[in-house]
């Protein structure tokens, strides 16, 4: 474990030291978040290229601690595509269509490097698997693009995405350690690097933030988490390969899922921003930014702990636990998110009437 502590510590130091450079670069190229609408909770312009420090810390650490084989090179190239996309978007907003194109491209690069979802565990049969065959490619693309965007969608408060991403990486580290898979060490190293890079950035990003990670960081963290979930969990023959990564990434996944549901119910474009995310709802209850972020850290840690515990469950148990979790999550979302959105829709109709 001493080696993993070192792997965790180095990116913390690198990310912390590189963040002022990212801040300077953001000011030079105009990557500044100016509060233009009521969705933003900050009141003054803040640089938003902090993800560049996370990326560089991750890249340098991967070069130091991992062999540059086909898999690692494909992960780095795909991540670099995501980061370049994020930098462009942080300077001048990019259309959703182009962002989707580059995210799909990064997923295709992973597939070329043999990083893909080839089978899923069958939760009803011990050591049973469902071979995806040709469906492997679209399923991998859907997973990578979906998870890449989840952290970006919850990136609405100081330190939220960085902290949640770090907690998810730590959770996947312990999940990988508990699964009998031949290449676990590689996955654990990447998880430690991701967590360290995010934690190193947090002192600059926690409320009151001096810099935001921007799309550069949120998309990159989401992308890297999608990768380690595929390599560390979904390549295991364990029957909980579907459940565990969903739990480990529970907060961003469920918040994104309910955001999509909320917008569909209200007949709004799926990509249209709103104030229905869980952090907005908690702020509306009168909590401070710090209180909301710490609460969501705790929620994310609970999800992660559940994922680690479930990694050793017998067939069928994972389905029961996941069903229970989904029920609780839905009730919570109905209380703070979806129902609130429906109530607002009703109020708007009454106002027009």
Overall description:
This protein is mainly α. It has one domain. It contains 13 helices and 4 strands. It has helices spanning 2-29, 51-65, 70-91, 96-112, 136-153, 160-178, 184-205, 214-232, 243-248, 250-265, 278-284, 289-310, 317-352; strands spanning 32-33, 46-47, 119-121, 129-131. A hairpin with a 7-residue loop joins strand 3 and strand 4 (129-131). The relative contact order is 0.14.
- By secondary-structure content and strand pairing, the structural class works out as mainly alpha
- Number of structural domains: 1
**Major sheet:** 2 strands, antiparallel
Total strand segments: 4
> How much helical structure, as a percent, in the residues?
55-70%
How do the strands and helices of this protein lay out in sequence?
Layout: H1 2-29, E1 32-33, E2 46-47, H2 51-65, H3 70-91, H4 96-112, E3 119-121, E4 129-131, H5 136-153, H6 160-178, H7 184-205, H8 214-232, H9 243-248, H10 250-265, H11 278-284, H12 289-310, H13 317-352
Antiparallel strand pairs: 1-2, 3-4
Helix pairs in contact: 1-2, 1-7, 2-3, 2-7, 2-8, 3-4, 3-8, 4-5, 5-8, 5-10, 6-7, 6-8, 6-12, 7-8, 10-13
Question: What would the keywords be for this entry?
Answer:
13 helices, disordered C terminus, single chain, two-stranded antiparallel ribbon, 4 strands, globular, mainly alpha, 353 residues
